[in-house]
Amino acid sequence: MTNNIISRVTTRRAYNGGDSGIPVKALLEELLILLGIFSIGDYIPWLKWVDKINSLDSRLKKVAKDLDAFLESAIRNKKAECSAGEAKDFVGVLLEIQDGKETGFPLQRDSLKAILLNSFAAGTDSIYTTLEWIMTELLMHPRAMETLQNEVRGLAQGKVEVTEDDLGNMHYLKAVIKETFRLHPPVPLLIPRESMEEVKLLGYHIPAKTQVIINAWTIGRDLFSWDDPEDYQQDKFLNSNIDFRGLNFELIPFRAGRRGCPAITFAIMVIEVTLAKIVHKFNFAKPVIVASSVNAARDIMKTNNLVWSNRPKCKMADRLLYDSKDVAFSPYGEYWRKIRSVTEKV
Prior knowledge:
By secondary structure, the chain is mainly α. It has a two-stranded antiparallel sheet with strand order 1-4. Strands 2-3 form a two-stranded antiparallel ribbon. A hairpin with a 2-residue loop joins β2 and β3. GO terms for molecular function: heme binding; iron ion binding; monooxygenase activity; oxidoreductase activity, acting on paired donors, with incorporation or reduction of molecular oxygen.
C-alpha cells in the first residue's frame, strides 16, 4: 500500500508487477537491506577485500544496475508525459528545475535519480513501519482503539470517506501517532553524523572525523524525560506541546537540525489519512494480549491450558493448509485430538 502511494505521488504510476521487467518492490526491499549492512571497509580500509569474499560487492553491483534501469525508465516515461501536457508529479517537477533556473545550480542526472530513490526507499519504509506499530499497539490497547474510532467516526459523521480536511481536529489520532513514534521510531538508530572539525560534546573533546550515532529508541524511553516510559500512554500528548518536527529532542523520529528529514509533512499526512481511514472503515473486535513474563506463560500453558487451547482463525492457514487441517492451526476439538494422536505415533 505505502509503496503504491509513494509511486503514485512520485511518478503517477503503481509498480506492483514491476516496470520494464524489473520487480520494483523486491528491488527496493533489497536496497533497504543493503543500506543497513555493515561494511568493514568503511572503518578498516585495508579489510575492504572482505566485501568481495562475502559477495557484498556483487550484490551492490546488481542492485545498483537494476535500480538505475528502473529510474531511467521512469524518467523517460515522465519526459514523454510532460511533453504531452499531462499534470506534473514529483519527477516532473524535478525535470522542470533540472536546468538550474529556479535552484541556482543544475541538477545532474545522477542527483535526480538519487533523490527519487530517497522518495521510494525512505518514504515507503518509514510509513509502513509506523503504521504496523500503531496497529499493533492499538490492538493491544482496545480502549485506545475504541477512543480513536469514536473520535474519527464522530468527526467524519455522515461521510463515506475521511479526507485531509477532517484531520485538523483529530487530536487523539495525533497523540496515538506521537506515542508510537516515541516507543517505536521507524529508524531506531538515526543515520550517523560525522564531525567536520574538533568539537566539545558534553564536556568531552571530540576530534574531527568522529562518527556519532543518535539512539532515538533509547531517548524515547528515557526515565528523565518521560513518566513510565515503557508504558503506552498516548494521553500524555493531548495537552503537550512536544512535537516530532525537530524542536523537542525527547521525540526525534525524523531527526533534527540541518540533516532533519525534509519530507516530515508528507509522511505525517500519509500516516494520519491512512490510520483515520482504517479505523473509520473497520472494526477490530478481538482483543490481543502479548504475554511477556514467565508467570503469564505458566498461567496460559499450564494453569489454564485448556481454556487457551484454541487457535484464532487464520486466512493463510485456511488457504495453504487445506482449511487448517494440520496439527498446528486446526481449531481445538475432536478433529485436533485425532490428528495430534496421529503425529505422536509417527
